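I have been asked to look over a protein record a colleague put together. The record follows directly below this note.
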Amino acid sequence: MKKYIFALVICVIPLLLFVGCNTTEEDTNIQLAEVTRSVFYTPQYVALEKGFFEEEGLDVELQTTWGGDKTMTALLSDHADIALVGAETSIYVYAQNPKDYAINFAQLTQTDGTFLVAKDEHPSFEWDDVLDQSFLGQREGGMPQMVGEYVLKQHDIDPHGDLDLSQNIDFANIPGAFLSGDYEFVQLFEPTASTLEEEGTGHIVASFGEESGEVPYTVYMAQQSYLDEHPERITQFTRAIYKAQKWVEEADSTEIAQVISPYFEDTEIDMLAASIDRYKEQHSFAPTPIFNEDGWDRLKDIMEEAGELPEDIPFEELVNNEFADEIVSEEGE
């Protein structure tokens, strides 16, 4: 995936569906691109809805870009100031030798956010149940698929030899393809996984987040030039995210669900709360924006295991913890 998607990114093909942001204006507007819409990103929606960005004097405009390739293209072509996307994308971009690459400056999630969903009930699920079954995976080279393969291998399952694995469905179309296609297993984020279970069209049988352990799964990144030109905005943005992380850690899941419900209008509050509970139970929401070096090494191990690590890039090359360290230090953990 790294060879194809980011060849497009480096060419910086303009995206017609985005309205370009003017980063030369001395204002407080930030164009934020999220890789998908998911309960997995709950602290971000809390920061927006609770006014934490406004408290920092920022006007944050959120756009959902549906996929790592589109998100990074938006960032590198100046159609977004900050991107919420998998940390692996910064490695792919750097390996292509761009002039102004992406720097990770704040972490939002610290585990995989997907769940293994089966069409049929598996009351006593064992990982061997997936052997020789049709499995609808996530896109090749993305964190969900790489973590999925990593977990399967931990259970002595060869994803490409022991399964009938499909990876040819666009991210946004995976749930629909699972329901309409001849697939027994699929890897899904919340609230989609719980929604299918509620409808009786799917059954959550395992958590990839629990199986894989901590990893810097979804992070905020910006181009190096943006960090150099707007350090105060990055500081304000990071502070707002940290406020949201602390609030989410302390708040009840139902209260959180009510706050983020405008971003999931088709999902009932109870369903949102159940999804939030799943993520809180497995500690998916990072407690601070600080990006851990051990997590970076684990990320590279997962990428290497999947055959997707283009080169061994040092932590300090693509991670800048200065903003997060300052915020956590002044606010207190």
